[in-house]
Input
Amino acid sequence: MKNGSERYGYIPIFCDLHSKHVVVIGGGGVAERKTKALLKAGALITIISPRLTSSLAELAQRGDISHVARTFQAGDLEGAWLVIAATDDKTVQDAVYKEAQDRHIFCNVVDEPRVCSFIVPSTIRRDELCLAISTGGKSPALAKALRKELEKDFGPEWGVFVSLLGRLRSLILKNYKGQAVVDKCSRLADLAVTRWIKQDDWQRVEKWASDICGEQARPIVQEFAQNG
Output
């Protein structure tokens, strides 16, 4: 392209779905997987499908999700913030996408980038740490393969590390000002700490944290050590 600029089809965005109305079209295995992920994000979910997997039926019975027991109809997306279509019926896919576009609602049709306003990346989740991998819909298999490769390097210690950083950063923001905040927060991003956590070397973690954040950091680290 001119001036050496590049253009990409998608931009990565992490969405807060807590208490947002999400509509899922379909009630099979894929819909089940998507629904369970959405529930973890705190979404308010309505599933539209004549049939549900046993697991989805149980969620509906408990009141964790709403279920409309029929096929998709025009108007079903009213009030939705986001929609996911997990069906292989192209007529339904096109109808869902058209209504979503008309209503300016983000829409994902599983495995059909042609009718998606967003795509769902392959992810590695370690508590609050989330790594997203996407090939822009060109090769989901490659994204999955890369995820499996990276999972070897990002164990549960990374989730602990991120949670600890959040507590220590709050301590810095409370006790310091100006450039000291920037400098100390930068020092917190020490990747070697993940190795110490993995090795249960909490004494070393405690010294590292107190050197940066002061003595108030010690009980915070001790709390993580006891819970680990």
In short: The chain has three domains: 16-120, 121-154, 157-227. The chain has a mean pLDDT of 94. The domain at 121-154 is CATH 3.30.160 (Double Stranded RNA Binding Domain). The CA atoms of residues 13 and 89 lie 28 Å apart.
